[in-house]
Amino acid sequence: MKHIVVTGAAGFLGSHLVQSLIGQGHQVTGIDNLSTGMIRNLAEVMENPHFVFHEADVTLPDTMDFFVDQQVHEIYHLASPASPKFYQADAIGTIWVNTRGTYHMLELARVKGAKFLYSSTSEAYGDPEIHPQPESYRGNVNTWGPRACYDEAKRLGEVFCYEYYTKQRVSVKVARIFNTYSSGLRNDDGRVISNFVTQALTGQDITVYGDGSQTRSFCYVDDNIRGLQAFMAEDRADGEIINIGNPTEYTILEVAHLVKQLTQSDSRVVFLPLPEDDPKVRRPVIDKAREILNWEPEIGLEEGLKRTIEHYRSMLQVQETG
């Protein structure tokens, strides 16, 4: 049994990862300051003897004190707001968790001799001028705009990882995660899938920003979690940056119509101005993931949306009766 630390444990990805790791028999300590994560995401594991929840802020150095007398084998550093709605509302906090927080968790990995996986993002590529995006692409990121607090903080987090890998010999892996979704994505998250499904099920207008021609690649959470765990387990992946995402690309307008069709909704599709610095295209090259991790996604968008819609529908029914 390994002792595995997951930061951002009450968030979307973190809670799914915690449940998966506990299901495999590991001892898991979850850390979250609950700024955007929700404790209800961990309801299924809170009473499990293999899980400990530690409400703490990883930007503070005393977070490490919790582990003084404990052995730690692996650290998944997932803590950070990921939706523009939330990271723009707390821009400085977003910068700190991806810089100070990353530093503190890397220090914990160094002291404990633990493996370390950093959840970076496809936003590291900015509004890309190369399409699709391989890991070798250095990006086109605006440092002076509303998304920079997330994009640039994640990029600097990667630099911390590089320094600890090359100078401190910590076993570091950097996952650049592309759009991920599932039934567990909170319906007020503000991202495309959660917005569209919630709007369609409640009869609201489905809001498309811009003309809907911008593209995204959507990865169902089960595939993502499987990719992260394969990444952590593979020693050949030490010191690597690897894209984790689904290479099938859709326009936002296509997704809006697919959600409308699958929900059998009468909602109108309406168009609003495109937010500043919103990327026009986004699709990962996953050759490295296939070759090094023997990983690729298995769940297509239509199947993933059906699962998501069913869960959101049941959630909304509970809210109506509650």
Automatic annotation (TrEMBL):
- Enumerate the cofactors the protein uses: NAD(+)
Q: Which organism is it from?
A: Paenibacillus amylolyticus
A GO BP term, please? D-xylose metabolic process
Where's the NAD-dependent epimerase/dehydratase domain?
A: 4-245
Does the record carry Transmembrane as a key word?
A: yes
Q: Which UniProt keywords apply?
A: Decarboxylase, Glycoprotein, Golgi apparatus, Lyase, Membrane, NAD, Signal-anchor, Transmembrane, Transmembrane helix
Write out the GO cellular component annotations.
Answer: cytoplasm
Concerning Gene3D superfamilies, the annotation shows: NAD(P)-binding Rossmann-like Domain (3.40.50.720)
Q: Which CDD domains match?
A: UGD_SDR_e
By its UniProt entry, which InterPro entries does this protein fall under?
A: Epimerase_deHydtase, NAD(P)-bd_dom_sf, UXS-like
* GO terms, molecular function: NAD+ binding; UDP-glucuronate decarboxylase activity
Q: How does it sit in the membrane?
A: Single-pass type II membrane protein
The parts of the chain that form a coiled coil are: none
Q: Where in the cell is it found?
A: Golgi apparatus membrane; Golgi apparatus, Golgi stack membrane
Nucleotide-binding among keywords? no
Protein name from the UniProt record: SDR family oxidoreductase
Q: Where is this protein chiefly located?
A: Golgi
